[in-house]
Design a protein that fits this description.
Length: 217
């Protein structure tokens, strides 16, 4: 079945360009377009797309800045100058349960979520995740994809996906970003597990007053 995509952008020309790009792919289809945030919410509820590609700042209901969006459940971000192949790859990655994230952004996200952390001892006592699942979650937080994790642990990609599915089910979440936040708050991940690689704003090429250049997915 095709991956169903909803486009949300207040620029009609950009939406048309994105539709043309996406519909060149046999496994993707655009099921709707929204010109403002309110319409995006309505169409998302009505059409139930697999993936929403949304501008971060739109009229009527504005998107929040990157960290806030990720905490709210967005599975990644792209800059407006991303190439077409990057956008298509991101749609497929998010649909398969992966996240489109820079490790520096993950580190800032973890810092913000670190307040109510339970502590690793409490997590181990709770026993929600197995030792293998915990190892995989840490690798996800470091920005590793399924293939990299499989190579590191000498597993098949299918086995890694199965472990991730178990993690999502146990945490009651739908993507890697949510699992990372939950893992930190439950004590399975600490900031030491995700060393910062660069300043998040630098890696994004985004300043606080430059939000319109960012597209969430």
């Amino acid at each position: 079945m095709k991956i169903r995509v909803l486009l949300a952008d207040d620029h009609a020309v950009l939406r048309e360009g994105m539709r043309s790009l996406i519909e060149l792919e046999q496994d993707l289809e655009v099921v709707g377009e929204a010109g403002d945030g309110e319409e995006a919410v309505r169409l998302g509820s009505e059409l139930k797309p697999d993936v929403i590609l949304m501008d971060i700042v739109m009229p009527r209901v504005s998107g929040r800045y990157i960290i806030g969006l990720l905490e709210a459940g967005a599975c990644g971000y792209l800059l407006k100058n991303a190439r077409g192949s990057e956008i298509i790859g991101a749609i497929r990655a998010v649909h398969s349960g992966e996240s489109v994230l820079d490790p520096a952004v993950v580190h800032r996200l973890l810092r913000r979520a670190s307040g109510p952390a339970r502590g690793r001892e409490d997590a181990q006592a709770k026993g929600l995740l197995s030792q293998r699942e915990t190892s995989i979650l840490k690798m996800v937080a470091r920005g590793m994809n399924n293939e990299d994790i499989a190579n590191e642990l000498f597993l098949s990609v299918r086995t890694v996906k199965a472990h991730l599915t178990n993690i999502f089910n146990k945490f009651g979440c739908g993507c890697r970003t949510e699992a990372i936040i939950k893992g930190l708050r439950e004590g399975y991940i600490t900031l030491d597990d995700v060393p910062p690689k660069s300043d998040p704003d630098e890696s994004l090429g985004v300043k606080p007053n430059d939000e319109a250049r960012v597209r969430t997915i």
